[in-house]
Amino acid sequence: MRTRIVFATVLAVAAFAPLYLPPYELSLLARFLAFAVLALGISLIWGTGGILSLGQGVFFGLGGYAIAMHLKLAGADAGGLPDFMQWSGLDTLPWWWAPFRSPAVALAAVVLVPGAVAAALSYLVFRRRVTGSYFAIITQALTLAAATFIISQQQFTGGFNGLTGFTSAFGFLLADSRTQVGLYWITLAVLALAFVATRTLQTSAFGKVLLAIRDGENRVRFLGYDPLPFKVIAFVFAGVLAGISGALVTLDLGVISPAMFGVVPSIEMVIWVAIGGRRSLVGAIVGTLVVNFGKDFVSSAFPELWLYVVGAVFVLVVTIAPQGLVGLVTLRRRLPRAGVRTAAALE
After folding, report:
1. What is the SS3 assignment for the chain?
2. Predicted confidence (pLDDT) per residue in 255-289, tens digit
3. Torsion angle, CA of 6/11/14/15, rounded to 10 degrees?
4. Domains of the chain by residue range
5. Of 72, 209, 266, 329, which cross-links 82 as Cys (Cβ 3.0–4.6 Å)?
6. CA 150 remoteness from chain centre
């Protein structure tokens, strides 16, 4: 009950943020809350399942491009081509772009495309019992390959610049303050639903088996469970959350490009969760907000120092507080109780 009260209080305070935050800070908060949706998925697969993925940026990018393709087509003239295709010399719309004229198809693709790619990747890799650092390297290589492929296909994907230049979404002007507030509330609602769904998975029988797989996959197999479907389902769930996060960030920024989901951004996503506490969903959200607000502050004042700062913070957290910021708070609460019990025992 106490946890529910705290959750409801925090949610209420966040819901009224448009009343006391300036537009710029509100936009930042909306973007970082969208990032937190992705961080929840990383917390599930890494903190609960022991699956370290350095490629969540791929699914983030797929979700972002799915919604951006619709926005580019909606902003083009009736039956016309997006501007970058015209500049590249194309005279007909590629067949795989055409379905994205429908907003329903685009919204479905935000979920289905990242989920399908995550399912295919995880099934092929986990079926071969690839785990640990080997899996992390494979996902990182996938991220590099995806970013390189999109950059090379300038005429179809916008290349290095990505997809940008759209000013409206589903009939609403993105620059309108009311649209920004609406996007913030949608992002907050999606984050709350994602938190509840992830927490439900963690506390269910599925989550207990996933936790057992993390601590001893061979023992789970000897007990009669097949770890493959549990790991695939968890990875697909994290991929879907990443896709949704990418779509929300694209709507907030008005752009999606390979620079937003390449190797470095994918590693930063893991750092968010590590700093907050990878075994805690609250820690994943806190870490995402702390690191990204810190990045905005430090990079604005000292642009060249940010990578050194985040690297130093990551090293300190891993060496001094491996359970992250939330772990430090939990430990601080436990110490006085342990002291009371020790004193009582001595008496």
Report:
1. CHHHHHHHHHHHHHHCHHHHCCHHHHHHHHHHHHHHHHHHHHHHHHHHCCCCCCCHHHHHHHHHHHHHHHHHHHHCCCCCCCHHHHHCCCCCCCCCCHHHHCHHHHHHHHHHHHHHHHHHHHHHHHHCCCCHHHHHHHHHHHHHHHHHHHHHCHHHHCHHHCEECCCEECCEECCCHHHHHHHHHHHHHHHHHHHHHHHHHHHCHHHHHHHHHHHHHHHHHHCCCCHHHHHHHHHHHHHHHHHHHHHHHHHHHCEECHHHCCHHHHHHHHHHHHHHCCCCHHHHHHHHHHHHHHHHHHHHHCHHHHHHHHHHHHHHHHHHCCCHHHHHHHHHHHHHHHHHHHHHHHC
2. 999 999 999 999 999 999 999 988 899 999 999 99
3. -150
4. 2-306
5. 72
6. 20
Query: What pLDDT, in 10s, does the model give residues 124-147?
Result: 999 999 988 999 999 999 999 999
Reference 189, options 248, 259, 277, 240; nearest CA is: 248
CA distance 236 to 51: 12
Residue whose pair of structure tokens reads 């990045």 in the numeric block: 295
* Paired tokens of 220: 């789970």
Residue 270 and residue 52: Cα distance in Å, rounded? Answer: 8
> In whole angstroms, what is the distance from residue 187 CA to residue 241 CA?
12
- For the entire predicted model, the pTM comes to 0.92
Whole-angstrom distance, CA of residue 325 vs CA of residue 285: 11
The residue to which tokens 């390449």 are assigned: 262
Bridging pattern class, strands 163-164 and 172-173? unpaired
What is the mean pLDDT of the segment spanning 309-336?
Answer: 74
Residue whose tokens read 């430990």 = 331
Residue 343 pLDDT > 70: no
d(CA 220, CA 216): 6
